[in-house]
Amino acid sequence: MARWGLVVGSLALVAPPAARGQACVEPHYRWSEKIDTALQTRPAKPVDIATILTAWAPVSLTSRDTCAPREGREDSVFALVGWVRRLRLQESDGDWHVELTAAPATPVDSCIIVEIPAERYGAIYRGARAALASLVDTTRLGPRGDLRPPVRVRFTGAAFFDGFHQRAAPGGTLHADQHGRCNSSLRALWELHPVYGVTAPG
Length: 202
What we know:
globular, CATH 2.40.50.140, alpha+beta
């Protein structure tokens, strides 16, 4: 029996990756994590946009990590208040894409993103969308979703690092790229995704 175990173990070591486990299939980058409702009952920790942009260290995830599970800070839920500067309702993955700044006159590129998945992924997302629509007049959105004047809103959701937009420059330096307008630093790739709750700020 021991000899057979050694043979099996040896075969496992030389087997090709496909034999050791199937590659996951996701319709979009880390999609299972983006729509997961499992964290919704966890208590929310308060955080502000300035802290995210200055103190939340980026992680090593890139566009190659399509199926990476949540880890570290991503297992926590946070509540933040920000000014809605852009709201895009027709993203290709069905999310509502919201860009927030710390103050109404903050430069729009000093932003973070929060995302609300489509209603079909959970009643909690239906509620979050309805709550946001009650606070933001979507008839005032510009062609790209810009909101003028901005509206102050409180969002609660799971932290998520969108490593898909972490790119290497020709010299090898990593930077944020094509993450809406929120590309000020790698820290700007931190999001709340998914958003579980939306309320007026207290």
